[in-house]
Design a protein that fits this description.
The protein is an alpha/beta fold and 309 residues long. Helices cover 36% and strands 15% of the residues. It is built from eleven helices and twelve strands. It is elongated, with a radius of gyration of 22 Å. It binds ligand A2R. Ligand A2R binds next to helix 7.
Amino acid sequence: MPEEILQTHKLLDRCERELAARYTVHKLHEAADKEALIAEIAPRIRAIAGGNVDGALMDKLPKLEIIANFGVGYDSIDTTAARARNIRVTNTPNVLNDAMAEITIGLMIALARRLPQADQFVRQGKWARVGYRLQSELNGKTVGILGLGRIGKEIALRAQAMKMRVIYHGRHRQPDEPYLYYQNLLDMARDADWLVLIAPGGKSTERIVSREVLTALGPEGYLVNMGRGSLVDEPALVEMLTNGQLGGAALDVFDKEPNVPEALFSLDNVVLSPHQGSATHQTRNKMGDLVVANLVAHFAGEPLPSAVV
Ligand code: A2R
């Protein structure tokens, strides 16, 4: 008999096919009566594929051994609760680094050169009447990276190809990295033209980009958020973008996705993106493969390819 697993949200088609080929998959997100489904299958569920797992759900699944998250960020899983219950948690690191770094630079150029507006300008036939306005460039500017991790390092490489100066902040200095380290985020924001956020969500980074940090970035400064909406004081961000206290923002993530503050929709100094940092065919397929590989390894009693707990 195949193992039975619980899937907590929609996954990529290929990933769902691979899971279905190996396991009997119960889809919590499609169940009309979620509690009834859980009550029926709980005694047989040793694994979850997907995120959004709190301690209460873990408690309803007494045989649960592993949660295989789709995504490198696993802040939707209560890892403290998992650890306390001896439940393993895996994520999908590294395979998305290039896709994330590419779109980060893409959004930066889109913002600096006002590419969404330029496209509209041509489509609306305005070019025949007047030339497009002048914009700014990345080269010669300083980019401060909050979170020089796996993805942050790929962004740093590409920012250098744009002839930008790279500085970074994290909890630790990384002596092998050639970039200037700032122990204090406020100091880095003051010295940066661009502030790129690529750190994890969760309690330790909540609102780390405060009104003070945004003020330090200033009216000429640009914020790029590729990490999590929770990293930023979003009401302060919206207010400061509206009144010119912050130069601009490129945002792939938001505090209450998919809800985006409507005040941003009319702002010229903002580029908005629907949390699509890793959303390419090649990367999402690799992420799905890693979810499956973690589950396969677990049931075979082998080391997990990418465990975080
Ligand atoms: O703090 P450090 O030196 O461990 O650096 C990590 C940094 N980081 C933080 N920085 C400041 N305050 C914190 N409380 C804090 N917590 C972590 O974020 C490290 O440089 C970086 C995370 O790097 P990785 O663990 O390699 O993550 P990866 O794969 O680059 O993904 C980053 C995030 C995901 O968690 C998703 O939220 C998003 O990108 O897709």
